[in-house]
Amino acid sequence: MYIIGIAGGTASGKTTVVKEIVNSLPNGEVVVIPQDSYYKDSSHVPAEERQYINFDHPDAFDWDLLVEQITMLRQGKAIDQPTYSYITSTRQPETVHIEPSKVIIIEGIMALVSPQLRELMDLKIFVDAADDDRLMRLIRRDIVERGRTAEMVLSRYERIVKAMHEEFIEPTKKYADIIIPQGGTNEKAIKALQMAIQYFIYK
């Protein structure tokens, strides 16, 4: 088993990089574990107050469960991955059954924050992108996928996202084995990454 961690700022292009890696590997040999699925449940918080929760802080994640389940996969055991709703900011009753696979990709803004999680990774990647580019992608994504207005996205970016990126996400770049500049638009870097991963897995 080969475990890859992919981190980077919000809307940096991580999803694009993950898709390109998945597309370069044989069907059935790779599983993607989204870190967002491991947000702590906020159903106990009144709905009108959930918009003020800082989802860009390490404390927002259930690290114990994430580390436990990645450890289980490495041991060859299946897991029931939690699911999370961005619309309601709550953990859902449904889970996703995941069997161990040749390649496991852990993708999320803080995938490289936890020392315990990093220890389980064979390759650590940081997807880098300019703040302006990330903000533009963030506005488009959150309006279309998460039901937010442009004003809501900008307000949250100014209040939380920018500061949390600088404090918690950007510093994890030092743990990366590979840094991809220009995010998901850097085709040459992504191609080189695909070749490197195939080498490590099939050498």
Structure commentary:
The protein has 203 residues and is an alpha/beta fold. It has helices spanning 14-23, 63-74, 115-119, 131-145, 150-169, 187-202, and strands at 2-8, 30-34, 79-85, 90-98, 103-107, 123-127, 178-180. The chain has a 5-stranded parallel sheet with strand order 2-5-1-6-7, with helices on one face. Strands 3-4 form a two-stranded antiparallel sheet. The longest helix has 20 residues, at 150-169. 33% of the residues are buried.
What is the helix tally? 6
What are the low-pLDDT stretches, counting only 5+ consecutive residues below 50? none
Radius of gyration, in angstroms, nearest whole number: 17 Å
* Helix and strand pattern: EHEHEEEHEHHEH
Main sheet? 5 strands, parallel
Overall geometry comes to globular
Q: What structural class do helix, strand and pairing data support?
A: alpha/beta
Number of strands: 7
Q: What percent of the residues sit in helical stretches (DSSP H or I)? A: 25-40%
- Quote the beta fraction: 15-25%
Identify the strand order in the major beta sheet: 2-5-1-6-7
The chain-level mean pLDDT equals 88
Question: Roughly how many Å apart are the termini?
Answer: 13 Å
Topology (elements, then pairings):
Blueprint: E1 2-8, H1 14-23, E2 30-34, H2 63-74, E3 79-85, E4 90-98, E5 103-107, H3 115-119, E6 123-127, H4 131-145, H5 150-169, E7 178-180, H6 187-202
Parallel strand pairs: 1-5, 1-6, 2-5, 6-7
Antiparallel strand pairs: 3-4
Helix pairs in contact: 4-5
